[in-house]
C-alpha cells in the first residue's frame, strides 16, 4: 500500500506538505487536485476528506486532513530527522507553538496577498484598491516582523 497525498500546489498548506515529503525522501503518489475548479466538493474527494479541504492523505485505509496534522503524522511514521520535530519536550513545544501561531497570522496574511495580487485580478479582471492593498501589506509585514523577532531568534531560551 502506498501513501497518496492529495494536493493543489497553489495552496500554501499543500506546498508545505509537498516540500516536507520531498525533503525527507518520503515516497508518495501525488494526486493533483484543483481547488479553483471545486474538486474538494466532489463526492469522490468527500470520501477521502470529510473537511473538503486540501491537503489530505490516504495511507492504506487511513485518511487524514490538515497540513500540520499530516506533517506530524509523516514525521512519526517515517522517523524524520530530529530537527523537524524534536524528541526533547521543550524544543517540541516550541515547534508546536509556532505551528499553532502561524495558522492565525502568517498564513492568512500571506493568503490575502496571493488573492489580492494574483487571483482576484486574474479571475475578475479588477485590481484591489491601493488603500486595501497597503493595509494587507502592512498586516503581512507586521506578522513577518514578529516572526523574525520571536521565532527566528537563536538565543531564545527554552
Provide keyphrases for this structure.
single chain, 158 residues, alpha+beta, Glutaredoxin, Glutathione S-transferase Yfyf (Class Pi), Chain A, domain 2, 2 domains, four-stranded mixed β-sheet, 6 helices, 4 strands, 54% helix
Provide a short characterization of the protein structure.
With 158 residues, the protein is of the alpha+beta class. The chain is 54% helix and 11% strand. The radius of gyration is 18 Å and the shape is flat.
SSE arrangement:
Elements: E1 3-7, H1 12-23, E2 29-32, H2 43-48, E3 56-59, E4 62-65, H3 67-77, H4 89-104, H5 106-124, H6 130-150
Parallel strand pairs: 1-2
Antiparallel strand pairs: 1-3, 3-4
Helix pairs in contact: 1-3, 5-6
The stretches of 5 or more residues where confidence is low (pLDDT under 50) are none
Output the CATH topology of the largest domain: Glutaredoxin
CATH class category label of the largest domain: Alpha Beta
What's the CATH H-level homologous superfamily of the largest domain?
A: Glutaredoxin
The CATH architecture category of the largest domain equals 3-Layer(aba) Sandwich
> What are the secondary-structure elements, in order, as H or E?
EHEHEEHHHH
Give the assembly state of these chains. single chain
Main beta-sheet strand count, sense and barrel state: 4 strands, mixed
Query: How much helicity do the residues have?
Result: 40-55%
Mean pLDDT: 91
- Work out the number of β strands: 4
Q: Class by helix and strand content?
A: alpha+beta
Shape: flat
- Quickly count the domains: 2
Task: Describe the structure in your own words.
The chain is built from six helices and four strands, in the order E-H-E-H-E-E-H-H-H-H. It is an alpha+beta fold. It has two domains: 79 residues, Glutaredoxin (3-Layer(aba) Sandwich), CATH 3.40.30; 64 residues, Up-down Bundle (Glutathione S-transferase Yfyf (Class Pi), Chain A, domain 2). The chain has a four-stranded mixed β-sheet with strand order 2-1-3-4, with helices on one face. The longest helix is centred in the C-terminal third of the chain and has 21 residues. The termini are far apart. The model has no long low-confidence stretch (mean pLDDT 91).
Amino acid at each position: 500500500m502506498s501513501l497518496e497525498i492529495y494536493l493543489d500546489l497553489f495552496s500554501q498548506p499543500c506546498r508545505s506538505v509537498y516540500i516536507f515529503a520531498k525533503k525527507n525522501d518520503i515516497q508518495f503518489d501525488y494526486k493533483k487536485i484543483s481547488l479553483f475548479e471545486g474538486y474538494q466538493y466532489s463526492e469522490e474527494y468527500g470520501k477521502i476528506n470529510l473537511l473538503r479541504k486540501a491537503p489530505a492523505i490516504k495511507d492504506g485505509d487511513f485518511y487524514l486532513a490538515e497540513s500540520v496534522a499530516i506533517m506530524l503524522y509523516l514525521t512519526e511514521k517515517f522517523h524524520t530527522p530530529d530537527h523537524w520535530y524534536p524528541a526533547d519536550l521543550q524544543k517540541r513545544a516550541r515547534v508546536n507553538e509556532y505551528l499553532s501561531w502561524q495558522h492565525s497570522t502568517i498564513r492568512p496574511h500571506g493568503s490575502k496577498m496571493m488573492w489580492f495580487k494574483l487571483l482576484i485580478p486574474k479571475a475578475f479582471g479588477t485590481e484591489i484598491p491601493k488603500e486595501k492593498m497597503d493595509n494587507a501589506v502592512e498586516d503581512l509585514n507586521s506578522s513577518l516582523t514578529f516572526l523574525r523577532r520571536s521565532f527566528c531568534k537563536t538565543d531564545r531560551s527554552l
